[in-house]
Amino acid sequence: MNTRVKTKILNYSSGEVEAHSLLAQPENPDKHAPAILLVPMWKGRVEFIDQKAEEMAGRGMTALAVDLYGKGKIAADNDEAAALMQPLMDDRAELHKRINAGFEALCNCPDVVADKVVAIGYCFGGLVVQDLARINKDVAGIISVHGLFNKPDVSTPEHWQAKVLLLHGVKDPMVSDEDWLQLREELMQADCDWQKHDFGLAYHAFTTPGANDLDFGTVYDADAHRRSEQLITDFIAEIAGRV
């Protein structure tokens, strides 16, 4: 499906933080399709995430590329990215407020079916959508793409009522076996409908074109990227009730 897309910056607040998220909408929305909440990597709402939102809108779905840092702030390098991300890693309660504000902003958009929202997160964003599933019983599905698996150190309602898709590179140095085992136990204890797909040759950031820092563990993998896109498409179709 290819349709014309309109975009605008959607401003909303989470406490004192003013988010500048990108809303992408199809000219003729499919009223039965899920809406997509896109959560970026640690650098912020970069072009990659905006393009994903426009791509989803081109397929008939309303999509929101979330600004977690406020005022559209984007890191210039890894040091700046770490400085932006770490306070939210250290204060997961604040992170929960910000992602929930993005979820609510998307649900308030025209033609969005509130019980058919799929949240897709990349890298840091993968961790964020896992947290959304922990705190929000209304999100229909979450997809973590080369996401971190660190469990929050704050108590959460432990909803995990969303369907869960985890796409993981086995060579990702940022996720330990211990991280995965504790997440798996948490999902099993919650009786969650989850699935995890491992890509045996993939590192972190395997969907990010241009990633090529083997020492840092971020390497683009065209095969893993292509396969993950198909898995994402199938997962969204399942949420839509089309499989």
Describe the fold and architecture.
The protein is α/β, with parallel strands linked by helices and 243 residues long. The chain has a single domain (5-240), classed as Rossmann fold, CATH 3.40.50. The chain is built from six helices and ten strands. Strands 1-2-4-3-5-6-7-8 form an eight-stranded mixed β-sheet, with helices on both faces. It has a two-stranded antiparallel ribbon with strand order 9-10. It is globular, with a radius of gyration of 16 Å. The model has no long low-confidence stretch (mean pLDDT 96).
Shape: globular
Uncertain spans: none
Query: Which structural class should the secondary elements be placed in?
Result: alpha/beta
Largest sheet composition: 8 strands, mixed
Mean of the pLDDT scores? 96
Order the strands across the largest sheet as they lie in space. Answer: 1-2-4-3-5-6-7-8
Gyration radius, in Å: 16 Å
The CATH level-2 architecture is identified as 3-Layer(aba) Sandwich
> Ends: how far apart?
17 Å
DSSP E strands, number: 10
Count of helix runs = 6
Strand residues, percent: 15-25%
What's the topology here?
Blueprint: E1 5-14, E2 17-26, E3 35-39, H1 47-58, E4 63-65, H2 78-90, H3 92-107, E5 117-122, H4 124-135, E6 141-145, E7 163-169, H5 177-189, E8 194-199, E9 212-213, E10 218-219, H6 222-240
Short description, anyone?
The chain has six helices and ten strands, in the order E-E-E-H-E-H-H-E-H-E-E-H-E-E-E-H. With 243 residues, it is an alpha/beta fold. The chain has a single domain, classed as Rossmann fold, CATH 3.40.50.1820.
